[in-house]
Structures are given as C-alpha cells and as structure tokens.
Amino acid sequence: MDAKNQTMVSVEGHTLLISNIDKVFWPQHGYTKADILQYYTSVWPYLAPHLHNRLLSLVRYPHGINGHYFYQKNFPDAPFWVERVPLRAENRVTVYCMANNLATLLWSVNLGCIEVHPWLSRFPHLENPTYIIIDLDPMEPATFSDAVEVALAIKILLDQINLRSFPKISGATGLHIYIPIAPIYTFKQTSQLVESLGDIIIRTMPDKATNQRAIKDRGGRVYIDHLQNLKGKTIAAVYSLRPFPEAPVSMPVRWEELRHVSPGSFTIKNALDRIKKEGDLFAPLLNLDQSLDDALRLLGVTDGRRH
C-alpha cells in the first residue's frame, strides 16, 4: 500500500494506522472515512457504555455505501489492544472482538465499517440478554408513520405489564423498542415474549402489523421481528451511523417525540448536537434490571414455550 495513503494516529495511548482517510463513503454528500472517524470519536463518551463487553459483528463497506458489503465476525489476528473472545460452535472457533476502547472502534472504521452491531448480551454472560428488542420494519406501502402507530400500541401493552421501554429510530425505515431486563432470562424466553406481544398487536390491528417472515406475505404492513432476540443476533447500536443516503444515525427518542420525527431526522451532521442537548436517553438501559416474571406468566411463556 502506498505510504502516502496512510496516517498514523494515537488514540488513548494506542497507535492506529489509518489507510485512505479521504476515501468517500457517501458519494452524494462527500462524507469520508475521516468524517466517520470524527463522528465516532465525538460520540464515544455516550456510546462506550452501550458497547462495553459486547461481542460485535462487523459489516464492512470497502467501497462505500453503494458498493459491495460483507459481514465479518472472526478476527484471529488483530492489534493487541483489541479485546477478543473465542467461541466454539461445533468444530469451529470464531474469535469475536469487543469495542471496549475507542481505538478498537476506529480500527473497525478503518476496515470499512460504518455501523456498529453489538450482541444483546454481555461477556461473559452470553446466554442471558440485558435487553429485549422489538424491531418494527414497515414494508411498502406501509410507512414510518405506520411503524409509529404500531410502536405506540406496543407501548400501551408494555405499560400494562409494567415494563419500561425506550424507542429509537433505526436510521433506516423503522423503529426499535428496547426493554432493559435483568440478565437472568434466556433468549428463548425473550424471543417468545416478543412473539406473544406481537400476536396481541396483530390481532388488535391486523391491517397494520404482521409477523410473516416471507416478505411476499407481509402485505404492506409493519413486520414485528421477534427473531432478533436470539443468541448472536445483532442490530445497529444506539448512536450508530447507518449506510444510507444522508448518513442517518440510529437515535433514541422520547415516546412523546415519535409522531414528530422521521427516519432522516438525525444524521452525521446534527446527531452530536442532539445528544449534547438531550443527554443519553438510553442511559436507563445500563442499570435498569427489570423482572420479566410477571410478563412471562401473564403471556403464558415458560422456558421459551407458550402454554
């Protein structure tokens, strides 16, 4: 590689070699790798607690948002300051990385990563998620507004079973609802809980919501994806950039704001101002260990099975 295309930077005492720092990732606006690095450096104080001890799946866009991309989970070779966890599945070992320092996150950006995809559980307790995610994905002709109406219906249901919840814009077309929980439940239980909640919403508003996995069967409704709550599944983290036009950010919002925002409300240009003004709206996810016992009982879920 041409040395002229490399830049040496010091990040919290770690030396990081950045290549092609002026590479354009968003051709329409000219946002470069340098812009991504600057964005994540700026939001790191807010993002870091949400990534701590979480395994990552890296999504690499070597040619920007309009080019080919691929997922990478295995990193047997990485700088010594990249914390890694080897996991064995059958006869294969996958070495995952964790962004427990800013240098690691910027290292991933240098590899072409735009967004951050953490696990729902923390190391070393990988079998027990710390939160539930309800992923609402509107399928055309359904719109973001339809996803908002479904989300508000889910909020009413969650309030009735005494579970606090926190919404964020996905940064794409839909919404994510997070429910922080005590890390003592299984992925089977949380996945089944979301499916049960979804069933109630679908019966209540069948023209708006669906849980049909096949896209052709979703009929222009909002897909409630309970399968996001399985071990190893990941979703764009809070404050993550997304690989779409305008460089949107997956941003937490207050419930009362939902009807007044849109998928493009927050971007690489204004996200930091928003975070500084509002603080970390997802801070409760870091220490709110809610019990699911009553919810599981009310919905008839035991060890991942409904009765």
Protein topology:
Elements: E1 6-11, E2 14-19, E3 24-26, E4 31-32, H1 33-51, E5 55-56, E6 58-60, E7 70-72, E8 83-89, E9 92-98, H2 102-110, E10 121-122, E11 125-129, E12 131-138, H3 144-160, E13 166-169, E14 175-180, H4 187-204, E15 209-210, E16 222-225, H5 271-278, H6 293-298, E17 301-302, E18 305-306
Parallel strand pairs: 15-16
Antiparallel strand pairs: 1-2, 3-4, 5-9, 6-7, 8-9, 10-11, 12-14, 12-16, 13-14, 17-18
Descriptive report:
By secondary structure, the protein is an alpha+beta fold. The chain has 2 domains: 116 residues, DNA primase, PRIM domain (Alpha-Beta Complex); 122 residues, DNA primase, PRIM domain. Helix content is 25%, strand content 24%. It is built from 6 helices and 18 strands. A 5-stranded mixed sheet has the order 13-14-12-16-15. α1 packs across α2. The longest helix has 19 residues. It is globular. The mean pLDDT is 94.
